[in-house]
Amino acid sequence: MVEMVRPDGPEQQQDLIHRAAQVLSEGGLIGLPTESSYVLAGLSISNRSTSNLQKYGQGTVTLLSRSVDEAFDFLPELSRIGKKLARRCWPGPVILASDSAKTAGGLVNSLSPETRALLGDGQVHVTVSSEPMITEIGRLLPAPLIAVIPDFSASKAGDLNGLSEEADFIVDLGEVRFPDGPTSVSLTGEQYAVSREGIVSSQSVRRMTAEVILFVCTGNTCRSPMAEALFRQMLATRIGCKQDELPDHGYFVSSAGIAASYGSPASPESATLAAERGANLDGHESQPLTERLLNHADFVYTMTRSHRSAIVTRRPEVADRVRVLASDGGDIPDPIGGGMNEYEHCRDAIETHLNQILADFPLPDPS
């Protein structure tokens, strides 16, 4: 019988994390809880772990990456839709299965031939868990874990019994948070298919493949709200739908401010001028530009070059998704404190640049 270990408090849990890291670094196997399933895990660079994991055929062998960025290092050629899902699903109960060809030039090639074979010839399965214990163990290891995620329900530690004869021990933290299990998504080129629907529904996956457009200014009460409202109205007209139907067509439009607070309304001038174009700012509430917003956005349009510079300086990896709104690279001046004429000039400039953006914007296939 494999030992079941359940920590009684924070101190014992820390001891258990260090014990688990030690066993894994020596090539052992451990039963661990993710947020949606108990798994049998070993160190991805250990041939001993790989050899023992090869004995189990009752699940999906998956790389448990320690972060989204590390996952991208293992899958450097991941499709655009795959990157969208990775940024929006992880860390969380979603497994992405990508063509093995997408690993070319990535860290998968640094693994042993045995480990690469275990991961699969046709597709490589990767996930990033939000389970705190896995995160803490991962920080103590030189490489990510590789795990067998059972094809059957494994919401409790005891469910691993038939899968864990070679395990050194199983960490028992009670029932997982999402007992419906993880959702698996298969990626082929720029297409995807939900191969197993778990806690994340197919509809949620579809929404997470949407185009997310984010407009950014300073306080999120004048320029970026106007850009958001005008673009939403223009995009809905172009597609031929109501503005509140845009998410069903695969588009989310939002705005934020680099120095914004939460909950401020749009300026009266911005609301009035947007309404003249059929755009509504009555319910607008300002919000600061957060890491989550940046992670989820596909297109970030800033009102000035300094806004873009502030974002890219802090997050250089998002540079290819952040650009100034003006096609000539210039700034949209801040009208705050000016009269209605200043606001009108601002709106008209924003509208001109939005028309240029929309002309080349990816629109849904009419079929």
Plain-language structure description:
By secondary structure, this protein is an alpha/beta fold. The model has no long low-confidence stretch (mean pLDDT 92). Helix 1 crosses helix 6, helix 8 crosses helix 12 (340-359) and helix 9 (268-275) crosses helix 12 (340-359). The chain is elongated. The protein has helices at 10-25, 47-53, 68-74, 80-89, 113-119, 132-139, 202-208, 223-239, 268-275, 291-296, 305-314, 340-359, and strands at 4-5, 30-33, 38-43, 59-65, 94-99, 123-128, 145-150, 169-171, 183-188, 191-196, 211-217, 251-257, 299-302, 322-324. It has two domains: 4-200, Alpha-Beta Complex (DHBP synthase); 210-359, Response regulator (Rossmann fold, 3-Layer(aba) Sandwich), CATH 3.40.50.2300. The chain contains twelve helices and 14 strands. 34% of the residues lie in helices and 20% in strands. The strands form two sheets. It has a ten-stranded mixed beta sheet with strand order 1-8-2-3-7-4-6-5-9-10, with helices on both faces. Strands 12-11-13-14 form a four-stranded parallel beta sheet, with helices on both faces.
